[in-house]
Design goal:
Layout lengths: L1 H21 L4 E6 L4 E5 L4 E6 L6 E6 L5 E6 L4 E6 L4 E7 L7 E4 L2 E6 L14 H12 L7 E6 L4 E7 L4 E6 L5 E6 L4 E6 L5 E6 L5 E8 L5 E8 L2 E6 L4 E6 L4 E6 L5 E6 L4 E6 L5 E6 L4 E6 L5 E6 L4 E6 L4 E7 L4 E7 L12
Antiparallel strand pairs: 1-2, 1-28, 2-3, 4-5, 5-6, 6-7, 8-9, 9-10, 10-11, 12-13, 13-14, 14-15, 16-17, 17-18, 18-19, 20-21, 21-22, 22-23, 24-25, 25-26, 26-27
Length: 357
């Protein structure tokens, strides 16, 4: 009887533990330009910890497929910090190059865009006197270096090779088959496609006739469509899988982060100066709703269960929580460190990441 009672008790305890684990909604990680990474418990939608990344100006952030490592770009250090998520300690810092920005992870490699010739701060508006002066200066600068994508082997903890991008490389995306790397280059108004294996430039898409300063880039869940936000066009570009431009879609002022939902049915766009998260039908491209948000909202992520979206609004000192059914803001999580980007584990759809199927 005692053994039977023990076995029953053990089985019940295991079932409770398994159910508790199954109900765990996971964690979100928020990079803060004014200090470290904030950890959000998605069960309570509250901040539970701050991670010291041992570097200044965190921006791009990514999590490995197994959730064991975070990779964070630290602008002022010209490096990335590789962080153990269990201990929340920095395991190593890898020098990449000046002004690292976006981080994406594919397998054991991290891809980091950086800008050796970037001057810092927002570029002038197209056509302005400042823009014309900057263009002339660029033409006269024979030593100006192109932007690059540094490729870091996370097991070795070092940069192993580079891919040359356009001036001021911004967003990074992978093709569905993993054979191509797609990059937005804001300074010369191009989207470039590169071979993942060799780094060779395969195709260049000029965006100027549609809008300037391409920023966000996202592939659809089925791999058949690519979207690129044009910050100085107030629209996003729609391309097919061969990168033929199909159309543009008007947005609010200065769109940046962009993502599909998991099923590929809706498109979400963070329109910065319009202070909205916009929702579009992914087939008709008709706008479904404008969700009022805050100031300098650039990047966002769905929660792993797709019930909410977390939107980093740096100059509103908050992460906005948005119900994906009601399409309404339901909560703000205070963050006074200038939040920049958001990713989650388990991995989910968002402007900086893609869910694992």
């Amino acid at each position: 009887m005692k053994l039977s009672h023990f076995l029953v008790t053990t089985a019940v305890s295991m079932a409770i533990a398994m159910n508790a684990h199954a109900d765990d909604r996971g964690k979100a990680y928020v990079s803060n330009q004014n200090g470290g990474v904030t950890v959000i418990d998605l069960n309570t939608l509250s901040a539970t910890a701050d991670i010291d990344v041992q570097g200044d100006g965190p921006r791009g952030i990514a999590v490995t497929d197994d959730g064991k490592l975070l990779v964070v770009a630290t602008r002022e250090n010209g490096s990335v910090s590789i962080i153990d998520t269990a201990s929340q300690q920095v395991l190593s810092q890898v020098k990449v190059g000046q002004n690292p920005e976006f981080v994406r992870i594919k397998g054991k490699y991290a891809f980091v865009s950086y800008e050796p010739s970037a001057k810092g701060g927002p570029p002038p508006a197209p056509g302005s006197a400042e823009a014309l002066a900057a263009a002339k200066a660029d033409e006269e600068d024979e030593d100006k270096e192109p932007a690059r994508i540094g490729i870091i082997d996370l097991k070795l903890g070092k940069k192993v090779r580079e891919i040359t991008g356009g001036p001021e490389t911004e967003g990074i995306e992978f093709s569905k088959d993993g054979k191509q790397l797609i990059v937005t280059n804001e300074a010369d108004n191009t989207v470039t496609v590169h071979s993942m294996k060799s780094g060779k430039l395969l195709k260049t898409i000029q965006t100027h006739e549609y809008g300037d300063r391409p920023r966000g880039i996202k592939v659809s869940p089925d791999g058949k469509t690519y979207l690129a936000t044009l910050e100085y066009g107030n629209r996003f570009l729609v391309m097919d899988k061969k990168f033929k431009v199909l159309r543009t879609v008007d947005t609010g002022d200065t769109p940046y982060g962009i993502a599909y939902d998991r099923k590929g049915e809706r498109i979400f766009v963070a329109a910065n100066k319009a202070k909205t998260l916009q929702v579009f039908d992914a087939k008709s491209y008709e706008k479904i709703k404008d969700i009022p948000t805050g100031n300098r909202c650039w990047h966002f992520s769905f929660t792993p269960d797709d019930k909410e979206i977390l939107l980093a609004c740096g100059k509103s000192d908050a992460i906005f929580v948005i119900d994906t059914e009601k399409l309404e803001v339901t909560k703000q999580i205070e963050n006074k460190k200038l939040p920049w980007g958001v990713v989650t584990y388990p991995k989910s759809m968002g402007s900086l990441d893609t869910a694992i199927k």
